[in-house]
């Protein structure tokens, strides 16, 4: 019998688990070429890491070389906070992703990377449980939702994070932490303050003090976008570190990298640096009382200022230097200028080619040399010979 491959993958729903901490897994029914059917459970972070590795294995089909050649489907990265809308969209997108994945050319859909990821694992057959904690809750998709992917709803994911250092709260809305405390994150705000719960306590905690249980969370951070998004400064800030920027209220800037700790890399003209995201507002958005109230709170601490050699962020985090931001940003701006210049030159060339023919000087015919006397006597008629005699 030939190598195993997957005939079909169906998203069944999701399961809410409570051990070792509260988390969610997606349930898939995997149908194999030997007609066997297995149910496997995967976290969304696992699926996203699988997706990134698949793109690296097939750069042409992922559109890295030419976007027109892309056939590998898109899969959005995990977000800071999964609200109701993003939660609903995720499972529908995931169902479509699996359907497209199985129908890709065999060199992709039947490669070992795909086959091994969906193979049954030991924990799929024997999930870890604890008798003192309530059993997992299963949420199956209704049959109608399987036919209409836009109706699929998903869970709100509560992840468990570890405190990497002691934190003393500075207001009643915050929560103090001790190094090693395990907290469940209820809300991840992109301003760098996360709302967490620890036993019977709840409050805001700087994201810089938290790290996930299973590894660095680079997958949650977006890649730099050197095209930039237009934002307006809503509150002035004076730089403390040399890699930060000093801006005044009303300044217009471009955000090129959104980081989890709430300190974003921004570009002002051709200068880049860090700035508190809570003092920024997307251009065109309306200011609200909630946003204004948040800005009255101090900026969260930067992750780079927390000294803890044992933190996994020190081991696996991909830190981009400010010089790299500046160099790539200037390169992007220069490329855009060159593209605009080339487009203008091309337009001028086309105009020149389309000029009317009347405006161009016409070529004059060459005058043939006069034949010699001997040639006329030898070759011409009698009447022509008389004229030269």
List the helices and strands and how they pair.
Layout: E1 6-17, E2 23-32, E3 37-42, H1 44-57, H2 84-102, H3 106-109, H4 112-117, H5 122-125, E4 137-140, H6 143-147, E5 159-163, E6 182-188, E7 193-198, E8 201-206, E9 210-212, E10 229-233, E11 252-257, E12 263-268, E13 271-276, E14 280-282, H7 289-295, H8 312-316, H9 322-353, H10 373-379, H11 382-388
Antiparallel strand pairs: 1-2, 1-4, 2-3, 5-6, 5-9, 6-7, 7-8, 10-11, 10-14, 11-12, 12-13
The CATH H-level homologous superfamily of the domain at 6-140: Phox-like domain
Q: Unreliable runs, pLDDT <50, ≥5 residues?
A: 147-157
CATH architecture of the domain at 6-140: 2-Layer Sandwich
Main beta sheet strand tally, sense and closure: 5 strands, antiparallel
Strand content: 15-25%
Task: Specify Rg, calculated over alpha carbons.
Answer: 33 Å
Tally the helices. Answer: 11
Shape: flat
CATH class of the domain at 6-140: Alpha Beta
The CATH topology of the domain at 6-140, please? PX Domain
The percent range for helix content is 25-40%
* Amino- and carboxy-terminal Cα gap: 105 Å
How many β-strand stretches? Answer: 14
H-E order: EEEHHHHHEHEEEEEEEEEEHHHHH
Widest sheet: strand order?
8-7-6-5-9
Report the structural category. alpha+beta
């Amino acid at each position: 019998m030939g190598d195993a491959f997957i005939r079909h993958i169906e998203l069944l729903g999701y399961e809410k688990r409570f051990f070792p901490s509260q988390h969610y897994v997606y349930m898939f029914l995997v149908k194999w070429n030997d007609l066997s059917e297995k149910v496997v459970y995967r976290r969304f972070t696992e699926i996203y890491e699988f997706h990134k590795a698949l793109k690296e294995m097939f750069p042409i089909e992922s559109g890295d070389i030419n976007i027109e050649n892309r056939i590998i489907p898109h899969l959005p990265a995990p977000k800071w906070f999964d609200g109701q809308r993003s939660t609903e969209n995720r499972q529908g997108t995931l169902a479509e992703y699996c359907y497209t994945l199985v129908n890709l050319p065999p060199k992709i859909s039947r490669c070992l990377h795909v086959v091994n990821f969906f193979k049954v694992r030991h924990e799929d057959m024997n999930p870890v449980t604890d008798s003192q904690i309530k059993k997992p809750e299963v949420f199956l998709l209704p049959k109608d939702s399987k036919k209409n992917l836009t109706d699929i709803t998903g869970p709100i994911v509560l992840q468990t994070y570890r405190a990497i250092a002691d934190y003393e709260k500075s207001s009643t809305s915050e929560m103090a932490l001790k190094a090693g405390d395990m907290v469940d994150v209820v809300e991840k705000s992109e301003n760098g303050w996360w709302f967490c719960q620890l036993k019977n306590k709840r409050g805001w905690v700087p994201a810089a003090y938290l790290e996930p249980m299973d590894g660095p969370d680079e997958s949650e951070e977006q890649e730099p976008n050197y095209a930039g998004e237009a934002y307006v400064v809503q509150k002035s800030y004076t730089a403390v570190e040399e890699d930060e920027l000093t801006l005044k209220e009303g300044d217009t800037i471009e955000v090129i990298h959104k980081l989890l700790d709430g300190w974003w890399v921004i570009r002002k003209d051709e200068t880049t640096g860090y700035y508190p995201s809570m003092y920024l507002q997307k251009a065109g958005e309306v200011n609200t009382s909630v946003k204004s109230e948040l800005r009255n709170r101090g900026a969260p601490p930067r992750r780079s200022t927390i000294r803890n050699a044992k933190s996994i962020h020190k081991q696996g985090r991909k830190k981009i230097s400010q010089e790299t931001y500046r160099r790539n940003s200037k390169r992007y701006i220069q490329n855009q200028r060159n593209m605009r210049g080339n487009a203008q030159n091309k337009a001028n060339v086309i105009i020149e080619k389309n000029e009317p023919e009347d405006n161009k000087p016409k070529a004059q015919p060459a005058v043939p040399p006069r034949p010699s006397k001997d040639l006329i006597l030898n070759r011409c008629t009698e009447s022509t010979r008389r004229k030269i005699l």
